[in-house]
Design brief:
The complex is a heterodimer of chains A (188) and B (240). With 188 residues, chain A is mostly helical. Chain A has helices at residues 3-12, 14-27, 29-39, 43-62, 72-91, 117-132, 135-146, 151-157, 163-182. Chain A is globular and about 50 Å long. Chain B has helices spanning 3-12, 18-30, 32-61, 67-75, 81-121, 133-143, 147-153, 161-174, 177-185, 194-207, 211-224, 229-239. In chain B, α7 packs across α8 (161-174). Classes of the chains: A mainly alpha (188), B mainly alpha (240). The interface between A and B is large, with 53 and 45 residues.
Chain lengths: 188, 240
């Protein structure tokens, strides 16, 4: 896949988004090795940061913050490097570790820092409650909000009779979600 | 996608023109419900992105990072060449020995591990329908768990997709995996048993340690539907 193909697949959504995600994940594994040995991170930490970085890359493409003005791998490297540095800063009580290459730590807006603490707490609640809605609603909401599948596709993917019933199901799931959030004093 | 969804997505992705964007903002100011719906939409977008991120994290957990290779690569220096060559020969012999032991051990462990993985995930398909007198006998045998009798009763007939699925399940219980795969492949992709077809094809191949086919069928299932999505993800991450 070329960068342009990855880019348009992410914007297109659906199965193309999933294919592009798997492609990015598999074709940039080398970045993990490089940053892991450069910053002396644990395997568990670098894997988590790599997952976070891929998620951020996709988010930034979807929200128009990254417009393919550099190579995707270069951009992903920057996000992963920044996240790794932030992580080291966070966990380090050892001054030696803080001497990592801070000068090249150019800031890129990511999922984590574009919202206030209060908004992040609300997002966490939304995430928790989506997971609490059960597999069926979770499948419908993921297909609608994350992948952007059409109602017809959502019906097929979730074994729902037709697009109208899928739409009704989506509405019911959203209503349930609102109620669950309301019980936690989060109003939408 | 309804009109609101379309507007939300266009605004969220920055695809609206300056005028459209301004109009949408004005509409949200005038209509608190619209603003509230949009805020919920963004929160759900963000939350689902995090759910997907967690899925990627789980997928990566099973990915082996070649740490040994990394350590060797970063610590290499031109000093002590003789000692290095000697070490390399020793390492080579050790690796060959370890490889032979490891290969045998890996196969044994992988095989028993996948038997367990199969057992954890294999549930015999539960019959939903029953039509006709002949089929009733067959269905009764299947429902009672008389799988051998069921395969005899069903022999030589034109099978409905559900009957093929039941045959495949019976063969899987009886350990006749190749027969099971053959039955599953007869189920058309237009049938309402399409998702079960790929799920059981994945499991059947898992049972005979054909991991390439297992992955192929489970990934295909995931691309088609959310049926057994979590179970398929778990199997795939273990196989990776």
């Amino acid at each position: 896949m070329t960068d342009q193909e990855v880019f348009s697949s992410i914007i297109e959504g659906g199965q193309s988004l999933e294919n592009a995600t798997q492609y990015i994940l598999q074709s940039n594994v080398g970045l993990m090795h490089t940053i892991k040995s450069k910053l002396n991170l644990s395997t568990v930490d670098i894997k988590d940061k790599y997952a976070d970085s891929i998620s951020n890359l996709i988010w930034n493409i979807q929200t128009g913050k990254f417009k393919a003005d550099s190579k995707i791998s270069t951009y992903l490297y920057k996000i992963l490097y920044n996240k790794s540095i932030d992580h080291l800063r966070h966990i380090s009580t050892n001054k030696n570790r803080a001497t990592v290459d801070i000068e090249s730590h150019q800031h890129i807006n990511t999922l984590d820092d574009e919202h206030t603490t209060f908004q992040r707490m609300a997002f966490d609640e939304v995430k928790t409650e989506i997971l609490n809605l059960g597999a069926r609603c979770q499948g419908v909401i993921m297909d609608w909000a994350y992948y952007g599948y059409s109602m017809k596709e959502i019906a097929e993917r979730n074994n729902i009779e037709n697009a109208d019933k899928a739409k009704k199901m989506k509405y019911t799931c959203l209503q349930k979600l609102r109620l669950l959030l309301k019980s936690k004093k989060i109003h939408y | 996608m309804d009109e609101n969804d379309k507007n939300f997505e266009a605004y969220f992705q920055g695809k609206m023109s300056a005028k459209q964007s301004l109009d949408f903002q004005t509409a949200m100011e005038a209509n608190p419900q619209l603003k509230s719906d949009y805020d919920l939409y963004v929160s759900i977008k963000r939350a689902t992105a995090e759910i997907k991120r967690d899925e990627i994290r789980s997928q990566l957990k099973s990915l082996g990072l070649d740490e040994e290779k990394e350590i060797n690569r970063t610590s290499s220096s031109p000093k002590n060449k003789t000692s290095k060559i000697f070490t390399l020969i020793k390492t080579g012999i050790s690796i060959a020995a370890l490889f032979m032991i490891g290969f045998w051990g890996y196969n044994a462990a992988q095989s028993s591990g996948n038997e367990e993985l199969f057992a954890q995930n294999f549930d015999v398909y539960t019959v939903k329908s029953s039509r006709g007198e002949n089929e009733n006998n067959q269905y009764a045998a299947y429902k009672k768990g008389n799988y051998n009798a069921f395969t005899v009763l069903a022999d030589g007939e034109d099978h409905s997709p559900e009957l093929e699925l039941m045959l495949a399940n019976s063969y899987l219980v009886m350990g006749k995996v190749e027969f099971a795969i053959s039955s599953l492949n007869k189920i058309s992709d237009d049938s309402s048993f399409r998702d079960q077809k790929y799920w059981y094809l994945g499991l059947a191949n898992l049972k005979i340690n054909n991991f390439k086919e297992t992955k192929k069928h489970l990934l295909h299932l995931q691309s088609l539907s959310n049926y057994k999505k979590q179970e398929a993800t778990k199997i795939l991450s273990k196989l990776n």
